[in-house]
Amino acid sequence: MKKSTIIAALLIANVAGCDISNYVDTNIPVAFAPGFEIEVDGQPVNVVGRDQCPDQMYIRSGCLVVTPESETVHVQVNMQGTLADEIWVVEVLDKPFRFSMSRDGGKPVILISEAGRS
Q: Which of 19, 33, 68, 104 has the smallest set of CB atoms within 10 Å of its CB?
């Protein structure tokens, strides 16, 4: 993947408490580092992806990578100390690449912070 993948991921990850769909406006893949946080029932929850991380990242696995072709993504959500497997639906909203993700039951994925931040 390109260096711009990382830049896009960092731009998105630095936006706290917002629906992901509001901040992606590019055709490049977006990579989230392992441990990024989403809001679940008003509480922060860590998430680990199932994808290989881009070469530019210091971590090799556990990323969540979303591309314009993604329809679903596989993640593990840390619910009270237990990792739960989930499949999220990716909806591409328009071109250039702008997307939203939803959990089981259609609940939107709300990003809180990137890995290592609170």
A: 104
| Contact criterion met (CB below 8 Å) for 45 and 37 | yes
Coil/strand/helix, residue 91? strand
pLDDT in tens, 66-109: 988 899 999 999 988 899 999 999 998 876 678 899 998 899 99
CA distance 15 to 113: 7
Strand pairing report for 36-40 and 18-19 = unpaired
Cα–Cα distance for residue pair 90/109, rounded to 1 Å? 10
Domain boundaries, the chain: 3-113
Q: Which residues contact 86 (CB under 8 A, 6 or more apart)?
A: 74, 75, 76, 77, 103, 104
Give the SS3 label for residue 22.
Answer: helix
Contacts of 56 (CB under 8 A, 6+ apart): 1, 3, 5, 6
